[in-house]
Amino acid sequence: xxxxxxxxxxxxxxxxxxTACFSFGGGEEKQTVDSQQPRFYVMDVxxxxxxxxxxxxxxxxxxxxxxxxxxxGNTLMLRVGDQEYAAQAxxxxxIDPQTMLGSQLERWLQKTGLFSRVIRQPSDSADMVMDVTxxxxxxxxxxxxxxxxxxxxxxFLSSNTESARRLLFQTGFRVEVDIDETTPGKTVxxxxxxxxxxLVALEQDLSDYFSRVDAx
Length: 216
Prior knowledge:
By secondary structure, this protein is of the alpha/beta class. It is about 20% helix and about 35% strand. Strands 1, 2, 3, 4, 5, 6, 7, 8, 9, 10, 11 and 12 form a 12-stranded mixed beta sheet that branches. Strand 1 and strand 2 form a beta hairpin. It is elongated.
């Protein structure tokens, strides 16, 4: 599987092994045209072990992810034209992308050790706030393009002060994962690989940022 991750004008190709996505209700290849049995999918990525190095007194409030309206629903989307997307009826995420990706990001960030705590409820005790925007989550099915799973996210880290927030750090990634064909199951598998690639890159960028600001 090939990845294309875009950050600004940089393109990196990186192989990556992740946990498999799950499709409840059986393989999509067995579903007939007349079948009304829906398929439910989840993207589940895991950093693995917790970092042995833990930040001290650096609490992060992770705000709810802002999702572009065309990707906010549970139904999987395929891009079939330059301005046209097709919802795949009967192929849905088990929970909405905002909730699903928010929980995955929270778990990953907590394991990085870059923050002493990651919280989801607004609190004056938080030192920093992270705002996240999901701007692409679909399978590429236009005839002039190769089959791909596409995910794009933007991240904004700000200080949490009573007067006004101050932007400290921002980054964003667009990942295009080659898939054999743009079927719902293979698209979700590709999206999961892309999500993990984004979280790996985000952790590295945050680590570089804190290494600079924490330097004596």
